[in-house]
């Protein structure tokens, strides 16, 4: 077994020395992150780990110089990595993170942190104990539209927020299975819950109503709700309501938050910010996705040891997970859940 690469050595990486990155998961989003990493100077995708070596080899063929593995431990023993990207489905978390924590390897992990709250709660404590650098895939926090929105909200008193996440059902096999994905609110709408927390503070109480209306009839093996609405009361008294659905046809969808404030209405969607005040309406347009900025920020933190730029670390993201899992509990027992 190779000697652990110490934190102090990691911090001393020179700018002209390539950072070695490992990717875990070989699906759609691992490939998306691999594409971004290839655009970042000074970064090498050194290894790929899949649920089988064959899958990892297939993906590694497109990443020059990357070694392929079917087991995380074997990958860490064989390659000295500066950081790892975890891009696996919600039910596959746990052992991967524990292994990385044991090896002191900083990691970026895609949202959601799991399909429940108990595991992220435990992992957050282990990460805290090691003071490990982590970043979670809440890329909306890095978008220009959200940066401007956060600035704008400083001058507004918000009373009410409404929001929607509407789309079609993702076709990856695990998504439709409640025990694997956790359902849409945990899996996708988590982005909006995370933005509420990032922009307005902590959530105190949630009440959810979910239903099954259409996709069960269209697809085999569906156990997730396909419609739902979640009302939230925040610590500062703001009331928010988010709806989500995955019943829409492919190519139709909306993601938005609407803020009702003492000065008017602010409508946010990822690429647009509309400000409506008495007698005036202004719309601003943006074209970034937040993904590249998110990755660069994480890698810079790993390189310098300064994590101040990371907008969603593991402990923070675990609070978002707590709220989305509380919504699931509420949808099941019909009662409000206080966080
Ligand atoms: N931030 C975003 O906006 C965004 C967008 C899409 C997906 N995601 C997230 O990315 C994650 C992955 O989604 P995806 O679309 O790539 O799914 P996918 O099904 O396409 O890929 C998942 C991959 O993980 C692999 N895998 C599962 N368990 C593993 C294990 N123990 N070790 C190694 N590999 C394992 C599978 O074999 C598969 O290759 C999900 O949590 C999803 O929510 C985030």
UniProtKB/TrEMBL annotation:
- GFO/IDH/MocA-like oxidoreductase domain spans which residues? 150-265
MF GO annotations: nucleotide binding
Q: Which residues form the Gfo/Idh/MocA-like oxidoreductase N-terminal domain?
A: 19-138
User: Which superkingdom is the protein from?
Assistant: Bacteria
Q: Which Pfam families match?
A: GFO_IDH_MocA (PF01408), GFO_IDH_MocA_C3 (PF22725)
Coiled coil location: none
Q: What InterPro entries does the annotation carry?
A: Gfo/Idh/MocA-like_OxRdtase_N, Gfo/Idh/MocA_Oxidoreductase, GFO_IDH_MocA-like_dom, NAD(P)-bd_dom_sf
In Swiss-Prot or TrEMBL terms, this protein is called: Predicted dehydrogenase
């Amino acid at each position: 077994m190779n000697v652990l690469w110490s934190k102090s050595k990691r911090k001393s990486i020179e700018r002209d020395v390539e950072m070695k990155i490992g990717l875990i998961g070989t699906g759609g989003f691992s490939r998306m992150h691999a594409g971004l990493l290839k655009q970042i100077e000074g970064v090498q995708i050194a290894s790929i780990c899949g649920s089988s070596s064959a899958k990892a080899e297939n993906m590694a063929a497109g990443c020059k110089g990357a070694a392929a593995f079917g087991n995380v431990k074997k990958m860490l023993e064989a390659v000295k990595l500066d950081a790892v990207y975890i891009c696996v489905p919600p039910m596959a978390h746990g052992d991967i993170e524990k292994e990385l924590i044991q090896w002191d390897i900083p990691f970026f992990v895609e949202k959601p942190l799991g399909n429940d709250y108990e595991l992220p709660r435990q992992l957050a404590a282990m990460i805290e104990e090691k003071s490990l650098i982590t970043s979670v895939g809440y890329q909306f926090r890095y978008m220009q539209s959200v940066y401007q929105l956060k600035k704008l909200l400083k001058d507004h008193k918000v009373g009410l927020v409404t929001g929607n996440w509407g789309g079609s059902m993702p076709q990856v096999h695990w998504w439709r299975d409640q025990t694997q994905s956790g359902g849409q609110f945990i899996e996708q709408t988590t982005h909006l819950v995370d933005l509420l927390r990032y922009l307005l503070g902590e959530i105190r109480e949630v009440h959810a109503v979910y239903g099954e209306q259409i996709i069960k009839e269209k697809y085999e093996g569906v156990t997730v709700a396909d419609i739902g609405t979640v009302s939230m009361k925040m610590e500062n008294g703001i009331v928010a309501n988010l709806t989500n659905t995955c019943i829409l046809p492919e190519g139709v969808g909306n993601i938005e938050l609407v803020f009702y404030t003492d000065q008017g209405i602010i409508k946010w969607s990822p690429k647009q910010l509309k400000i409506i005040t008495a007698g005036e309406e202004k719309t601003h347009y943006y074209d970034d996705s937040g993904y590249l900025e998110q990755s660069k920020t994480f890698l810079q933190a790993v390189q310098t040891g300064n994590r101040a730029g990371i907008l969603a670390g593991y402990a923070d993201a675990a609070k978002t997970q707590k709220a989305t899992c509380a919504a699931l509990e509420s949808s099941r027992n019909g009662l409000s859940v206080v966080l």
